[in-house]
Amino acid sequence: MKESIEVFVLSGGKSSRMGEDKGLLKINGLPMINYILDTVKQVGYSPQIIANDAEYLELGFPVLEDKIREMGPMGGLFTALSATQANHVMLLSCDTPNIRRQTLTYLIAQSEAHKTNVCRHKGKIYIDRYLS
């Protein structure tokens, strides 16, 4: 299954509530995004970053700009789905620095047995589950 998953970390938001790019906000001297990137690497994946700030290139991972700007996380999901050749995409947020390896491993293990699609359209959330 490992080869059929690509991992993308969203960090392209406006950070309107924080006033600064939250992915680059320092926690213990490191940008917040570093923590989730490291966790993804520890479970054996090479993450890609979806961001519109060239400063992310300095982190040493591929950076993709939003294909459609001003669409929030759904725009990031569209960018990830447009860029992947994998059967599965794991989309994570840069502002989850404390996510554990065990959590990612569990989500990956469950992704084959329980496929779930979630989207928001015109203020409504739609969830489709496909059980194998």
From TrEMBL:
The keyword Flavoprotein does not apply. It comes from the Bacteria. Residues 8-120 form the MobA-like NTP transferase domain. GO terms for biological process: Mo-molybdopterin cofactor biosynthetic process. GO terms for molecular function: GTP binding; metal ion binding; nucleotidyltransferase activity. CDD domains: MobA (cd02503). InterPro entries: MobA-like_NTP_Trfase, Molybde_CF_guanTrfase, Nucleotide-diphossugar_trans. Pfam families: NTP_transf_3 (PF12804). Keywords: Cytoplasm, GTP-binding, Magnesium, Metal-binding, Molybdenum cofactor biosynthesis, Nucleotide-binding, Nucleotidyltransferase, Transferase. Transmembrane segments: none annotated. This is Molybdenum cofactor guanylyltransferase. It comes from Litoribacter ruber. The lineage of its organism: Bacteria, Pseudomonadati, Bacteroidota, Cytophagia, Cytophagales.
